[in-house]
Amino acid sequence: MRRDRERILDIMLDIREALDSLARSLVDCKEADFLSNDLLCDASAHKLTIVGEAAARMSDEIKDRHPQIEWRKAIALRNVLVHEYFGVDRPMVWEVAIVDAPLLRDRIAAILLAEFPE
Length: 118
Hints:
The chain is an all-alpha fold. 80% of the residues lie in helices and 0% in strands. The longest helix is centred in the C-terminal third of the chain and has 26 residues, at 90-115.
């Protein structure tokens, strides 16, 4: 059981770290700058891919206990980003990075406090 808790904690921390890195990368960034910057867009897509990959490894028990997280949406986004890399919709990546990612980060932080208070 302890190993499961450690695994879940590691996954949650991976998600939080990817979202924190994404947020730091986009401080003071304007949409037009983002859309015209290949490196920034690709790095943001990579961080969102990490989130989706980590979400896919999350236990069903945690997913069921925390339905406020759109686990399937994160996993589906990862699949799109990985398999459609030349056709990635940059405005969609921007929208997810600016609107959805901060909300997800807050929810993950709340889960970490609830599940791992120590």
